[in-house]
Amino acid sequence: MKSCSVRCDLHLHTNVSDGDFSVDYVVGREKSLGLDVISVTDHDTVDGVARAVELGSSLGMVVVPGVELSTMDDREVHMLGYNVDYTDKKFIGELKDLREMRRKRNAMMLEKLKEFGIDVSEADMLAVACGTTVGRAHIAKAMVKKGYCQSMNQAFDEYLGFGKKAYVKEKRISPEEGIALILRYGGTPVLAHPYSLEMDDETADVFVGRLAAAGLRGIESEYFSHTISDKEKYGRLADKYRLIRTGGSDFHRETPDAQRQKFACFDSACLTELKIDAEKI
Ligand SMILES: [Zn+2]
Ligand SMILES: [Zn+2]
């Protein structure tokens, strides 16, 4: 982290996927926090990007078009894609196919929940969703709404989280396929929140090396919940494999945590790779 003249949050969700708020709310919120550069990175969809870009520019902010793909290795791996061509119909079609995989998995998880006496239907899920991508967060919301759980966290901890009672490992594209998809549409692939991979140093090194060979260009080392040692660990890997360091708040909803990082600042290599013209900010 060098100069802090450009305040960035490159990881934001809206209710186009599993966030609570509209694109307009989220972009307005970031403006009020004093951000210069933001990216709306909804899961497997770019449906909110055009509006975010339009609104951001009217408010004097740079909005980097973004997406967050869910991919699967031996564990779930999220891949951010920046500057993807969000108007390309073929790209939009490929994202739709990814969401269809998610829909099938949702149905399997709802079936599993029934085994535990939890009756959540697809209609219940859709009733708590208003965007394009419907997934586990909406199952969790419906479970809370119907009184099966006290909170979304409880729903994930007991049923929906990785390896929990109703978790279904879904068929998804591999991280390499996610990288290739982003590259195919002109984007910059960045490994999201690497702490969530729960890898020791050596495993992480091998994994990042593997993805770098497949075309990965960045690591989200400055993720809001990373500890200093996480930031150092993934920053070192970024340097080793010549990747940019990015970061963001992964905003989904307002949380009581006042300490939550509001923005991050990146070096010029990152700004250049993401086509952010710092001179104009
Ligand atoms: Zn993610
Ligand atoms: Zn995210």
Would you spell out the secondary-structure blueprint of this structure?
Layout: E1 8-12, H1 23-32, E2 37-40, H2 49-58, E3 62-63, E4 66-72, E5 76-82, H3 89-115, H4 122-127, H5 136-145, H6 152-160, H7 175-184, E6 188-191, H8 201-213, E7 218-219, H9 228-240, E8 244-245, H10 268-273
Parallel strand pairs: 1-2, 2-3, 6-7, 7-8
Antiparallel strand pairs: 4-5, 5-6
Named once each, the bound ligands are: zinc ion
What is the H/E order? EHEHEEEHHHHHEHEHEH
User: Whole-number radius of gyration?
Assistant: 18 Å
Oligomer: single chain
Mean pLDDT: 93
Return the CATH architecture: Alpha-Beta Barrel
Q: What's the helical proportion of residues?
A: 40-55%
In CATH terms, the superfamily is Metal-dependent hydrolases
Measured between the Cα atoms of the first and last residue, the distance is 18 Å
Largest sheet: 5 strands, mixed
Beta strand count: 8
Major β-sheet strand ordering:
4-5-6-7-8
Low-confidence region ranges? none
Overall geometry: globular
What's the CATH first level?
Alpha Beta
Structural class: alpha/beta
- For this structure, the CATH topology is TIM Barrel
Q: Could you say how many structural domains there are in total? A: 1
